[in-house]
Design a protein that fits this description.
about 300 residues, single chain, 3 domains, alpha+beta, Pseudouridine synthase
């Protein structure tokens, strides 16, 4: 892998085996579609050791393959100097720890004070010429890990893992009441009954939703849970915990506001996935935020 690249809308791949064709590397090793490989070849977007080549070209250990993508133009996010906490970065990915109260991408009421605006500023400051491609999103008042892909290939590959439930996602939540069972699974479909509803509910008409939890600690009238999502529906944890009558502390939508914390006590603490290029498991962790620690310590 070559870390010194001038264009972040490309992939650099070091060949690790002998006597395979470029086409075989792209399809077998990098999961490119046959249609995409042909289009890249016809537009001279595939380089071997810095020179455009054809798909039939044989490659050998140590050769450097570079694939340029065609669909990148400047995105619509304004660059705003908003500090971002970086948990992991390489030529393909930027993974950050989103603080509570920050919207992930611009909306009508949050036009330029979002994580995407801060990421755009960071990209520009590092001369990273790539769109902001959000692989996952968090609610404004949920803190934790957000993955940003630096090119369309990486975005698509990790999104595929998400859809296949191959990305391990862990959260911490502080919920109301004492959960006596040390471990449990909530398997209940979630639906939005009206198209314009913000709230979701457990309903037989909904999509399959599975949430695993284990008790980390019990406090007076509260329980700290570590949660693993098997599926990733909107508001899944919040709806499921309300469904078992242990809603999240401070969740004004599915519970009530709290004097202990001025948001829902929910934090995305860990994500693990297979890096599309390195083919190794990447695990990223985000520490508990200060408002969580305050409840736990007190």
């Amino acid at each position: 892998m070559n870390d010194n690249i001038d264009n972040d809308n490309c992939l650099n791949y070091t060949i690790q085996e002998n006597d395979k064709s470029v086409k075989e590397i792209l399809i077998d090793n990098l999961n490119f579609s046959r249609r995409l490989t042909v289009r890249l070849e016809s537009n001279n977007k595939i380089l071997l050791n810095g020179k455009p080549i054809k798909l039939r070209k044989r490659v050998y250990i140590g050769d450097e393959l570079t694939i340029f993508f065609e669909d990148d133009s400047v995105d619509e996010y304004n660059a705003v100097n908003i500090p971002i906490k970086i948990l992991y970065e390489d030529e393909s990915l930027l993974i950050v720890d989103k603080p509570p109260f920050m919207v992930v991408h611009p909306t009508k009421s949050h036009f330029d004070d979002t994580l995407a605006n801060g990421a755009r500023y960071y990209f520009d400051s590092k001369n990273i010429k790539a769109k902001i491609r959000l692989v996952n999103r968090l609610d404004m008042n949920t803190s934790g890990i957000v993955i940003i892909a630096k090119n369309s290939y990486i975005h698509n590959e990790i999104s595929k893992q998400m859809k296949k439930n191959e990305v391990d996602k862990y959260y911490y939540a502080i919920c109301e009441g004492t959960i006596l069972q040390d471990k449990g699974t909530i398997n209940a479909p979630i639906a939005r009954l009206q198209e314009d509803d913000i709230m979701r509910v457990v309903d037989a008409s909904g999509k399959e939703c599975i949430t695993h939890y284990e008790v980390v600690d019990r406090f007076r009238d509260m329980t700290l849970l570590k949660i693993k999502l098997e599926t990733g529906r909107t508001h899944q944890i919040r709806v499921h915990l309300k469904h078992i009558r242990h809603p999240i502390v401070g969740d004004s939508l599915y519970n009530k506001e709290s004097l202990l914390i001025n948001r829902q006590a929910l934090h995305c603490s860990e994500m693990s996935f297979t890096h599309p290029i390195k083919k190794e498991r990447i695990t990223v962790k985000a520490d508990l935020p200060a408002d969580f620690k305050k409840i736990i310590n007190e």
